[in-house]
Amino acid sequence: MLKKILQTWQNNKLLRLPAESRHPVPYHQAKDVGVLFNDSHAGESAAINAFVEQLQREGKRVRALTFFERPHSNPYAFKFDYFTKKELTPLGNIRNEKVDQFTGFAFDYLFCISREPFLPFDMILLKSRARFRVGTYVPGKEKYFEVMVSAGDAPLAACLDQMYQYTLLLTHHEP
Q1: What is the C-alpha separation between 48 and 113, in angstroms, rounded?
Q2: CA dist., res. 118 & res. 114, Å (int)
Q3: What is the rounded CA–CA span in Å between residue 133 and residue 112?
Q4: Which among 53, 71, 109, 168 counts the fewest CB atoms within 10 Å?
């Protein structure tokens, strides 16, 4: 409970900092895409695999990051980095070099695939240098994303397709 309060305090502190200037490039020009994901529902790894595979087929360089309570088997068909519960500090920071690299990288697009609010992901999103952040709609989290989609009870594959389609529509610029 105290850890959650401290993490929320830390994230609120980040929200008070001057906002990073975010200007998307047209999606077809994007080269680097970040995928921050949390496979909290069993069986959703196939949808995440298909999404990352689609990005890679389009020629995007994908860097992925996830959270595990503890290291376990890998249900994913792509390379990713992760952090665990033991790397979360009492003040809500994450002590992990891969997380620092992820937040410091200037992705053209960052997709956050998580159906429930997760304070460490909030911190990553706030620290991110990504030009355009896309995620699922959570009331009160509007400052964390440039585009949010309403996931509802739809399967994850449908939610990911919606994220992708909105990104294409909103960032399409005629030459």
Answers
A1: 8
A2: 8
A3: 7
A4: 71
- Residues 6+ positions from 2 with CB-CB distance below 8 Å: 90
- Cα separation, 54 vs 52, in Å, equals 5
Per residue in 160-172, pLDDT tens? Answer: 999 999 888 876 5
Measured CA distances, 136 to 71, 80, 153, 158 (Å): 26, 21, 12, 12
Cβ proximity of 123 and 39 under 8 Å = no
Helices 119-127 and 2-15, interaxial angle, to 10°? 20
Q: What is the pTM of this model?
A: 0.86
Pick the CATH number of 2-15+32-170 from 3.90.120, 3.40.50, 3.40.630, 3.30.70: 3.40.50
Domain boundaries, the chain: 2-15+32-170
